User: Fold this.
Amino acid sequence: MIYLEDENIIIKLNLIRGNKTMKQIVYAMTGDVKAGNKDTILRSGAIGSCIVIVAYDKLNQTAAMAHIMLPGKAPRNKEIQKTKYADNAIDELADLLKLNRANENDIEVCIIGGANVLKREDKDIGLDIIQSVEVLLKKRKMKTVAKSLGGTKRRSVSLNVETGCLHFTVGDGAETLLWKFNVL
Assistant:
């Protein structure tokens, strides 16, 4: 069984492997912040200069993913998706994890992206987002355990919340394990 829920781009797959019958694949596209439990696989859309933060709470086996497009905080008076901005997205990510009973001190974080895909020498928005995200995570005392940042090639990322395995790709390369969160 495969079906698509159009607004949130949620795909449910019926997997027949032992006792595991269903995993929900949740996509975090640009500006999205999504969360899931052990029955979830979190995936990003293509990551160019954007940054994706993957936050994991091993105690509650929950995770969240934020796909961040811009550094800093969203302007107050504009009708925009505020979670495109690092500060707003990290706040939303922490709030989603708290709703799932996560303790911010138990959260481990991986950050992926920030490529200079346009290969511009005069301005590197990816670097600006990297710096913004790292400052904000440090301010919140969220422990960064792994990174795949910079360069000139796009990336993608996928987290199986149940196993804690975080895989990523660079360019057209094969999927590689970036980090294995300890699962209790």
Observations:
- The chain has a mean pLDDT of 89.
- The helical segments are 86-99, 125-139.
- Residues 14 and 82 are 34 Å apart (CA to CA).
- The two ends are 31 Å apart (CA to CA).
